[in-house]
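Below is a filled-in request sheet from our internal design queue. Each sheet records the structural input a requester submitted and the sequence that came back. We keep these sheets so that new team members can see what a complete request looks like end to end.

REQUESTER: design group, bay 2
PRIORITY: normal
MODE: inverse folding
CHAIN LENGTH: 92
BACKBONE (tokenized):
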């Protein structure tokens, strides 16, 4: 019984640990002045970085980039589309 209880608590602890861990990155391409957002950045040969853009879902590789770690709320705000403004109704 003690082993089962230990395994249960260990499993719950691991689930909490892994669910709380998450990295969020803002990647700037100075050549095109574009900004991307991602959760995982892979460094390739000769300094290039590869990642999946959270907004478009595209796989992106950039030779020269600026990678900045950001907070989750900043990441969520950046990838959430802005609501469209309602058309203005003119009354005469």
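RETURNED SEQUENCE:
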């Amino acid at each position: 019984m003690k082993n089962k209880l230990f395994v249960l608590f260990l499993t719950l602890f691991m689930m909490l640990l892994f669910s709380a861990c998450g990295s969020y990155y803002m990647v700037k391409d100075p050549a095109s002045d574009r900004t991307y957002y991602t959760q995982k950045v892979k460094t390739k040969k000769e300094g290039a970085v590869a990642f999946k853009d959270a907004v478009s879902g595209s796989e992106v590789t950039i030779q020269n980039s600026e990678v900045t770690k950001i907070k989750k709320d900043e990441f969520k705000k950046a990838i959430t589309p802005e609501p469209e403004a309602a058309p203005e109704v003119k009354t005469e």
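SHEET NOTES:
- The chain has two helices and six strands.
- Residues 20-79 form one domain.
FILED BY: M.R.
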